[in-house]
Known about the structure:
Layout (H helix, E strand, L loop, with lengths): L10 E4 L10 E6 L2 E6 L5 E5 H7 E6 L4
Antiparallel strand pairs: 1-2, 1-5, 2-3, 3-4
This protein binds zinc ion.
Amino acid sequence: MSDKNFEINDVVEMKKAHPCGENRWKIIRMGMDIRIKCQGCNHSVMLPRKEFSRKLKKIIEKGEQ
Ligand SMILES: [Zn+2]
């Protein structure tokens, strides 16, 4: 999938699931770093943009802008 035009509020799937078993993450902040929140346990993780796009598998759902 080449669609990596992620934006804030999108729900994405990463290459590796969160240890809680969930693999849906919502993008809650974008900048130099991307902050995503696990939709299973609400844990949030900050990743450098480059690392995020490397670990991103696909966009599940587009958020409202
Ligand atoms: Zn989780």
